[in-house]
Amino acid sequence: MIAISIYHLCIALCAAPIVLLFEWWRNPLHKIPTIGPSAPLLSYIGAFRFFYHAREMMQEGYTKYKGSTFKVPLFDRWLVVVSGRTLIEELRRYPDDQASFDLASQELLQIKYTFGPEALDDQYHIDVIREKLSRNLGTLLPDVQDEIQHAFDHLIRTEGDEWTSVHVLPIMIQIVARASNRIFVGVPYCRDDAYLKLAINYTMDVVKGNIIMNLTPPLLRPIIARYFIPTAKTKRLTRGIITPLIEERQRSQQEQGANWNEKPNDMLMWLLDEAEGNDSRLRNLVTMLLGVNFAAIHTSGNSVTHALYHLAAQTDYIQPLREEVETVIAKEGWTRAALIKMWKLDSFMKESQRVNGVSSTSLTRLALQDLHLSDGTHIPAGTIIVVAASDTHMDNEYYPDASEFDPFRFSKLREVAGEGTKHQFVSTSVDYISFGHGKHACPGRFFAANELKAMLAYILLNYDVKFEREGVRPENKWVATAIIPDPTAKVMFRKRQQ
Ligand code: HEM
Question: Residues that bind heme, according to the entry (predicted)?
Fold first, then answer.
């Protein structure tokens, strides 16, 4: 009996690698070139490498396979990367029922467990961002600016003409969180430390929850999620803070109806209006609010920090930018029209996003059916596809001297007749995909661009900035596909003496 068992065990042990190899060879993804090892089990070594050295692996793939596809390993799946104008355009054109952004996000972030199933059902916040937030930018700008000023005064303490060293990334994230939440929930909540902490930490909670879910077998996920997903607590605590505000607004709406003259013009009110008479939307308001914070805070906080590092490293950019801001403000006052006229500032932000960005990939899609790309690549249903954003942005074919940070690259291009809007910060194209491109391009980018330019303009008008080690911009950190400005760097701030 024992002999038979050992015999069977030996057969099983010998057969397992053969079966694994056969499955690997039969998998249609096998035909897509791999960066790093692709054989079964060895691909985990590749996944470790990708976690720490994504920049080099993406560069290698782009150099070898530009205009086609390659794949890189994550711990639980392959990521198929497409590049070149033709394929990016092809990916953009696929309808949602063939290549889905929503389901790709669901898979990569385990949204059902991290945000909660309600976040998948009814994404009415996207239309609210598109329709209400973007159309109210001009009206809301004074509030954003007021909050920026309040936040800088509160968080960056300078004395006379002394230089103060500021640990920039966490401070910029806080300022963005306050300025954004001035428009999401208004005063005093946008200054409430407990609420801000929850809104800021929600992103890390989602990341942690995602790691926990990826380590859990699918069958056990619903149970593990119930007890170990940190977002559940964050949502509960946020509900505790925001529910009285929601109830107060519902009461005012009932009592005053169309005569409610002081009706707030903010994200929470727009979401409430959209949820009126819809119980499930009302129940999910806080999830939606946190979802908007997730999309807005770290993306914008990292972006303004990237730009500020360039300013502090190359202080000769300060004068032309400051001159532009001062001249436009003197003529126009602090309006949205004024921000639009600041071409150099807009160009500076766009160039910073081009050479840094917040992610090395964009246009994330899940193939819902087999896709056949024009270069002959066959992508099987169930595959996650992305575009090589950073490498596209660093390609000399699209951007002369692409590796150079040329702050006024885009404002110079805009001076050519007919090119005025094409090179704005918010314009997307197959060559500029920091905000995605096409149907799912970031709907919050108009708000983000306004807020970030208002923050930079505020810094230019009110502070001198520099690095302690002058002229040296700290290296960005790459963690898998995420790109983060050095989280430890400090910038020196000195209040300008008017
Ligand atoms: C500098 C800041 C930002 C960056 C770099 C950024 C970037 C992006 C990117 C790359 C996408 C995915 C596009 C795609 O794969 O096709 C996206 C989607 C999205 N962003 Fe942003 N974003 C920023 C700020 C914001 C803000 C402030 C909001 C909200 C107020 C927002 C809300 C969203 C939403 C809701 C989506 C999903 C769109 C959809 O489902 O169709 N983002 N963003």
Answer: 442
